[in-house]
Structures
1.
Amino acid sequence: MLDESKLAIHQATTFEKWSFDEAVEGYARHGVQAMGVWRDKLQEFGVQRGARLLRETGMTVSDYSPAGLLTPLEDLSFQQRLDDNRRIIDEAAEIGAQCVVLISGGLDDDSRDIERARGQAKEGLAALIPHAKAAGVAIGLEPLHPMLCASRSVLTSLEMTNDWCDELADDDTLGVVIDVYHVWWEPHLARDIARAACRIRALHVCDWLQDTRDLRLDRGMMGDGVIDIPAIRRMVEAAGYTGFREVEVFSERDWWRRDPDEVVQIVKQRYQSFV
Ligand code: ZN
């Protein structure tokens, strides 16, 4: 049996049917003690009010997302992005999130300069670290699957993520988020997880469907796809990670349409058999 107190659910898993407060109360009703919070949902409810509800419910925030998207190459919007990210960090502090999940951002519509976008993302990240440090909030850098390179993340492998951490981090403010959906295919996964070691801030689980129809919004529930999730979880935990195993299923055509109470029950079953 896996320790159930280490199960967290990201509210993306019940995105369509549950608002922020419904998710907090719904997960708690099923005995889930931690959740990943999605910014738009929290803002809809109100950050202060949300922080209070989380405290009153005894819900731990395993992470807060999404932060980042730092690659607009035009100066003004880059500064606006940085300001917005500083607000995200402050919100994360207010709800006591264990980290903010940061994705780098992709390419502008009119740009073909991937190296410049990567440089810009790194520059933005470096600019945010002091603010995070002062706020006492950790940043978890999440590499995405390379098919999302143009639209969401020029940071596309765990190796590159480790390199960026080596370059930019001088303490444990900057870490790594490992999402099995994005890294399961990597040829040197074991090596790069071992290298990330104590920098690992969060572990996200779901599955990759054999005939996936949408790269962002058609994730599978654990057990329905091709990822050997327990093998990756074991690598992450052997590297020293002791935190939550967070279920994050963006699934527009399937899980979002189901009754959320049923979804949470199935998450709990699959957690035991496929995580
Ligand atoms: Zn994730």
2.
Amino acid sequence: MTSVIIAGVGSYAPQRILTNEDLTKIVDTSDEWIRSRSGIRERHIAAADEATSDLAIKAAQSALLDAKITAADIDLLIVATCTPDYPVPSTACVVQHKIGIPPHATCFDISAACTGFLYAMEIAYGQLLTGRYKCALIIGAEKLSSIVDWKDRTTCVLFGDGAGAAVLKKVNQPGVGIIGSDLGADGELLELLYIPAGGSRCPASPLTLEAGSHFLHMKGKEVFKNAIKVMETVAREMVEQHHLTFDQISLVIPHQANYRIIEALASNLGVPLDRFYVNLDRYGNTSAASIPLALDEARRAGRIKPGDYTLLVAFGAGLTYGSTLIRW
Ligand code: ACO
């Protein structure tokens, strides 16, 4: 009996910190409003010459070190991001070249917004089980500061930059590692959170630039309601499918978008908040990077022990959503 385990994790956040107080100098907002509505105190912002791949590489190197392997051991690389270095080619190809993953590796990006890391994990899991790949590196990395409208106070206060990575390997041991995954999407709701221009439907032009349609547009209230509903559903399904109860889940790592969303989810599931890992106060919403960043911190902080069950649960633009159950 084989399983796919997380053999190493790593993360990285850019050096520059932008506090709520700093934001008050850019838009009409206050530390009190941002903290009370979202729980965010500060976020990391990449330098002008730092792209998503630069953040991804640092997180990847830390995950490789943690797994005690080198880039030469990787034959599958998946980068989950909605802020790629270029529209073409993939950020995975940039990372592959710069960290020395051999050319025979399969390298590609996936687009599932904030649920991207869970989608990447599910794809890598399936590919490793086929036996065609030996070792996968999955990365969630974002430079969201490059797609938010710094004049729009309803969005710019919520997001940050960062990256997280994990090394996945197949082992001959039953019942460990990735136990289950439940992913979904509801494309009917895509306009709740999207970038209207810059793609094939509405290519970039002076008009789209003028209208600011190349920035992230969000209907915050609707996203908020949907997020709680879908995360509760997939979290419950995952736990029930595996004949567990929430008492047996040592730690829930939710997508770090808004503290009030996490609070409502915890309350609806009847799980004490202290069993949810929360770091959004220091990073804001880093989309695909949010779960691996939190996972890396939680592990390094000793919040995850051998034998523990950890539940990852996310939602994002699409709207995509999902949950993944891991046993360490
Ligand atoms: N500072 C001060 N006031 C503000 C700000 C701000 N930064 N932003 C909005 N306001 C004002 C609004 O204009 C509004 O004023 P009005 O009542 O005079 O019209 C008032 O504050 C209330 O605004 P609401 O939108 O009702 O505030 P709400 O309590 O819904 O909180 C928030 C807004 C934080 C965006 C919330 O809806 C939310 O978190 N939604 C989910 C967003 C999310 O998670 N998105 C990402 C998911 S996917 C991904 O990660 C890519």
3.
Amino acid sequence: MKNYTTIKDISNLSETIKEAILLKMNPFEFQDLGKNKTLVMLFFNSSLRTRLSTEKAAKNLGMDVMILNINDAWNLEFEDGTVMNVNTSEHIKEAAQVISQYADIIAVRAFPTLEDKAKDESEYVLNNFQKYASVPIINMESATAHPLQAMADAITISELTEKKTPKVVLSWAPHPKALPQAVANSFVEMMQDLDVDLTITHPKGYELNPEITRNSTINYDQEDALKDADFVYVKNWSNYNDYGKILSQDENWMMTKAKLGKAKFMHCLPVRRNVVVEDAVLDSGQSVVIEQANNRTFAAQVVLKQLLENI
Ligand code: AN0
Ligand code: CP
């Protein structure tokens, strides 16, 4: 693997999932692989899981880890040719090259603006790091994708499924804040690459990017969509068409124990209780959110391992 910015960077998905499960059984097997190698993690936004699980994964492989909350550093300029006489102090051209002097791998978290669709879709933060850094780049959730989360979700479903082709439902939920489409996007792309029967359900108008959903089943009737589901993945996203807007807060879309039926409940976390999903679901044995969070370590570890093997 050369970079991990989208799930398209995975060359053999089923082998990678198997490898992650082996790492989970024996996390310290490759502790010499990362010796004298440094992971630099850059955070433009908050994180609990990504930050801790990726650091843990790197340390399991013997790497050193340095973390920079980028808002504590100089304000970065991404435009080419700008006269930098206003708010930005340092250009990405220098910053990415400088960080590459200290890092063997750079991981970046940079959420979308949710205001400027074209700018967000250009993935200008992630792509400029990739353009100017001289080391591999890992996406720790960008404007449009969260491939480490999707990998952890794929591992979780592979471990827990009792069927060859489980029915997986991605169900939109209400949320008081405008959230990115990134988690949903990467989850859909990942499910399209796995042997699962995927249905996406959301209120009319909440369609994700059709270049991502492609020919996946979309059912606007949540109850009908959830019928016979084996895994229900709940996630809010703000509107993609009327970009970044909240058009519905309809609490009827919240996941409940009654709607879940016998399915396993999945969510990337953090989750707002009794807004996105009721307590009775999260506090039941059907919730696998903690297993998902645990698998974030082995998702990051398999990615770091494949990158280190290629350095
Ligand atoms: C973020 C999102 O929805 O993309 C991060 C999830 C991993 N969620 C929030 O900001 C609540
Ligand atoms: N699921 C996830 O990425 O969580 P954090 O935002 O806490 O990293």
4.
Amino acid sequence: MGKIILTGDRPTGKLHLGHYVGSLRRRVELQNSGEFEKIFIMIADAQALTDNADNPEKIRQNIIEVALDYLSAGLDPEKVTIFIQSQVPELCELAFYYMNLVTVQRLQRNPTVKQEIQLRGFSDCEDDEVQSRKGIPVGFFTYPISQASDITAFRATTVPVGVDQAPMIEQTREIVHKFNSVYGETLVTPEMLLPENAVCCRLPGTDGKAKMSKSLGNCIYLSDTSKEIKKKVNSMFTDPQHLQITDPGHVEGNVVFTYLDAFSTEEHFARFLPEYANLDEMKDHYRRGGLGDGTCKKFLYSIMEDILQPIRERRAQYQKNIPLVYEILRKGSETARAEAARTLADVRKAMRIDYFDDADLIAEHTRKYQD
Ligand code: TRP
């Protein structure tokens, strides 16, 4: 059987460089590898609503932004199915049945959900709820189960995600195991596919903070203009002890070098900074002293432009034809729905709740009441 990918993102904002190195770039490679029979990329609006109940308009506005980011990063709707989660209602029905296979206690142990509860300021104490802090929405608490539906509905063998999603994949595998042992072999057990190198797992923000995040205002967006990128690169955090060009510098914790680690290739050196053959040589010079931050930033800016300009150009093309983008999403959602419906039919059959198609059941009850 062929390998199938499912992955996705919550549409809570435009995608940034962290998303690009962490997942988008990889997805485009996977798309072009020819290794996969089918690839589904989901805009997880329903999951985003689980902790944005009071701000549905934010989600509604960001679906198109994420779709534009996908297409401009190089995802090709001829090769991958891009769809909107809420437009596949079969996913809800699957989740409803899976809920019977998971305990409250198991959900409470999910480390990512625990962390998100902290970050969102949800309270898990009943007294607080009465006073001021908001309690945990049930939909939010159970989203790992909904995520298991997303993955299994498409019979995904492979789920490319960041490490923060590991608990969701583990939960999905447990649900698959439980379902198959109770109802018979039906669902496919997925594997997680992590990013290849460490820098790609977590690109720091332009301010050097651990993570690029919209709320910290330290992002480079895929949709940024050249001017915005120049400004952001120039204001990047470097080495506070590297005051004079001749001072020895540190590359660890120096954001410009972290970004060069993530993005620079020997080809970039040949084209934009031929004084060095590769990043190691450049780092050596910086450490010795004599290499200024200005030169490093100029080089990084050239690389950023090299990567982002084609993305920006594709975005501009798609932005001129928004109805086409919605059409891509509509068609993708139809394809996804047909696929999920097949799995749902299998699930109903395995659970033996397909009563009207079950001739044996009707015959059995006919006999029961004969004479
Ligand atoms: N939880 C993922 C995120 O926050 C989004 C998501 C929803 C997802 N369903 C999924 C990812 C299924 C992979 C597979 O980014």
